[in-house]
Amino acid sequence: MIPLRVDILRTRAALVNGLLIALNVLAFIRELTLPAKVGRALVYSFGLVPAHEQQLFVKHGITVGQAILPLFTSMFLHGGWLHLLGNMLFLWVFGGAVEEALGHFQYLIFYLTCGVGSALVHTLFNLGSKVPTVGASGAISGVMGAFIVLFPRARVTTLIPALLLFFTVRIPAFMMLGYWFLMQFFSGVGSLGMSDQGGVAWWAHVGGFVLGALLVLGVRTKMRSAAYT
């Protein structure tokens, strides 16, 4: 299922969401300009490597700064055009409404918090892994978790591929995103014990989604109160 748009009328431009998309695109373009060897070194230096993060707790390991930096930089790197475009599509569709609900600055802090939190969850479930993880999907999962809490009945126009045909349907957000979350969770369960195989960072998605949902519970309560005043 590929989301195309949501039926929420916004009253202001999603400036921060647009800035985040631009930063991701620019960072990826910069990756493309680097020689292959330098690009690989970049991923290992600024991507999230669970085994590297664990060295923070080892004598003569890494510094706090060296441990914290990849938690942020990894969410602005991507492994290919499809990886980037898929992530940016989801951010574009769901991010604007969440930014309007939270406010520009709060949304930026929220996004970064979800990105860091999802990276920590990924590290916890992949202890010892030397495979670098890059991508904005953990932070974007947080945005999706917030969206399902704030706008559960909003309709998501979704592209459905069926053999060689494509058609669109309007699905309630709680159904579309709920199904997506369950797919991530059960895929994560199936990946347990295979931490050094690479692939999709399922637990980053799960962690980001849950964190994003929890962080906006207070905002949802205020929105309900306002509706009845």
What's the topology here?
Layout: E1 2-6, H1 15-33, H2 36-46, H3 50-54, H4 64-73, H5 81-102, H6 104-125, H7 137-150, E2 155-162, E3 165-172, H8 173-191, H9 202-215, H10 217-227
Antiparallel strand pairs: 1-2, 2-3
Helix pairs in contact: 1-5, 5-6, 5-7, 6-7, 6-9, 7-8, 7-9, 8-9
Structural account:
The protein is mostly helical and 229 residues long. The protein has one domain: Rhomboid-like (Rhomboid-like fold), CATH 1.20.1540. A 3-stranded antiparallel β-sheet has the order 1-2-3. A hairpin with a 2-residue loop joins strand 2 and strand 3. Helix 6 runs antiparallel to helix 9. The protein starts with a strand and ends with a helix.
Task: Give the key terms.
229 residues, mainly alpha, Rhomboid-like fold, three-stranded antiparallel beta sheet, globular
Order of neighbouring strands in the sheet with most strands:
1-2-3
How many angstroms separate the termini? 37 Å
Count of DSSP-assigned helices: 10
CATH fold group = Rhomboid-like fold
CATH superfamily: Rhomboid-like
Helix content: 55-70%
State the low-pLDDT regions, or none: none
Shape: globular
Strand percentage, roughly? 5-15%
Mean pLDDT: 90
Structural class: mainly alpha
